[in-house]
Amino acid sequence: MQTVTRFAPSPNGPLHLGHAFSAIVAHDLAKERGGRMLVRIEDIDGARSRAALVREFRADLAWLGLEWNEVPAQSSRVAGYAAAALRLREMGLLFPCRCTRAEIAAAATAQGPDGPVYPGTCRGASVDPAGPVAWRLDVAEALRRAGPLTWHDERRGEQQARPDLAGDVVLVRKDADTPASYHLAVTLDDAADGVTLVTRGLDLFAASHVHRLLQALLDLPVPSWHHHPLLLDADGSKLAKRRGSGANGFGLADRRRAGEDGRALAEALREGRLPAGITLSEALDIAP
Ligand SMILES: [Zn+2]
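Above: the input record for the complex with zinc ion. Below: its predicted structure, written as tokens.
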């Protein structure tokens, strides 16, 4: 079986060195094994997605010397997300929820990988599904039906799936502009695109527990995973678009326009020669 990896950026801000590292990992693992890297634009994040940024992303990746095949963007796949959500609803595995972030934070008794774990407020309650409503996965019931699940990370070995640690995750968002949550969209996309090796940062390690469960529920093929270390800035925080990492000296487009040699930068990242102020972290508890 040919190795197929993917790099899947969201056009909600410029790419930064962390994206470069992630794209290089996906690219090199595929190439070393005679496979290929796909690029998928994750553009269902409503108003924040911008077409001009997608053109910049392609220029950034070419500048780094990477080769890829582009597959359809998420915005062209929403009917498939809706169909999968309906299937899970008909299986009795989703429930409607109108809780706000503040309500969840106030009622939560556990912290999960993405913050306060949803305390199950609306599970078993008769919430009217008319109007804006999120649909959450009843993880306990889903796990009961799927049975024990394992998944394999190339760097961390065999994992017992623990989707319960994240609680009843949202699969369909309240916000009509963002029809599917990251968990549902990415799991369906990777299956549809024939991805055999999911590469991404360790900040998404816990998400793989949830994705493994969704694969079982939706009869999808099960890939392997490769969660790579994360680039941290001088504060020990993950480089992140929302923290301005795309435009504060770590941004790829800025460096490209300033005349930096992108292939040399890619070689340096491969060899672990990191720009000043940047370190690599193997920690599992860095927030996504
Ligand atoms: Zn709720």
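Notes for the reader.
The pocket of zinc ion is lined by residues 97, 99, 121-122 (CB under 6 Å).
The chain has a mean pLDDT of 92.
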